[in-house]
């Protein structure tokens, strides 16, 4: 495993959850905006590391921005319908076709950007973490999810449950 992969995995699976937990235990519900900002910066690290490989060009960045905007718009449109948010599906689609880094950044930015409308609060870092992890894991499982529609449906359903749990 290369150093870049280790840094990406540490950012997603260790640093991001630690930021959320430290925010909960040390700041309570008073510094959620600061925690969201720090988590947004950490969410960008795996994406920026992928620039080293030359994977990100303008077209890819625009597609990620559009997918993030679609998930935010979907959250606005379906706001009146309880427990139905297309963000998870869009994050999974982005991760499958653009990679785990793109899935993580789409998930975490969808939460923080849509909460400009819905209201930032102590729940924002948890939403960022949950959707980011769902996207990152979908990117890691992309080949299996594309090959098996049943597995894709199961992953989507479990993602909704995991999001609600987190």
Structure description:
Helix 2 (32-52) runs antiparallel to helix 5 (100-118), helix 4 (87-98) packs parallel to helix 6 and helix 5 packs antiparallel against helix 6 (124-140). The longest helix has 25 residues, at 3-27. The mean pLDDT is 85. The protein has one domain (3-165). It is mostly helical and 166 residues long. It is built from eight helices and no strands.
How would you sum up this structure in a few lines?
The chain is built from eight helices and no strands. It is mostly helical.
Overall structural class, as computed from helix and strand content, comes to mainly alpha
Cα radius of gyration in angstroms: 15 Å
Helix segment tally:
8
Average pLDDT works out at: 85
Shape: globular
Give the total of domains.
1
Low-confidence stretches: none
Q: Major sheet, described briefly?
A: none
- Work out the strand percent: under 5%
Q: Distance N terminus to C terminus? A: 29 Å
Q: In percent, how helical is the residue content?
A: over 70%
- Number of strand elements: 0
Order of helices and strands: HHHHHHHH
Write the layout of secondary structure elements.
Layout: H1 3-27, H2 32-52, H3 58-77, H4 87-98, H5 100-118, H6 124-140, H7 142-147, H8 149-165
């Amino acid at each position: 495993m290369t150093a870049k992969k280790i840094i990406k995995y540490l950012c997603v699976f260790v640093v991001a959850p630690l930021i959320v937990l430290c925010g909960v235990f040390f700041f309570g519900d008073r510094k959620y905006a600061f925690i969201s900002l720090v988590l947004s910066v950490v969410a960008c690290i795996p994406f920026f590391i992928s620039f080293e490989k030359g994977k990100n060009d303008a077209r890819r960045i625009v597609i990620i921005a559009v997918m993030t905007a679609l998930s935010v718009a979907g959250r606005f449109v379906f706001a009146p319908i309880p427990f139905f948010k297309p963000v998870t599906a869009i994050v999974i689609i982005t991760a499958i076709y653009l990679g785990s880094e793109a899935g993580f950044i789409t998930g975490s930015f969808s939460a923080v950007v849509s909460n400009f409308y819905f209201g930032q609060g102590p729940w924002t870092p948890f939403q960022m973490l949950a959707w980011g992890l769902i996207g990152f894991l979908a990117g890691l499982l992309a080949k299996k999810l594309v090959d098996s529609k049943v597995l894709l449906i199961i992953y989507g359903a479990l993602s909704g449950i995991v999001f609600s749990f987190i």
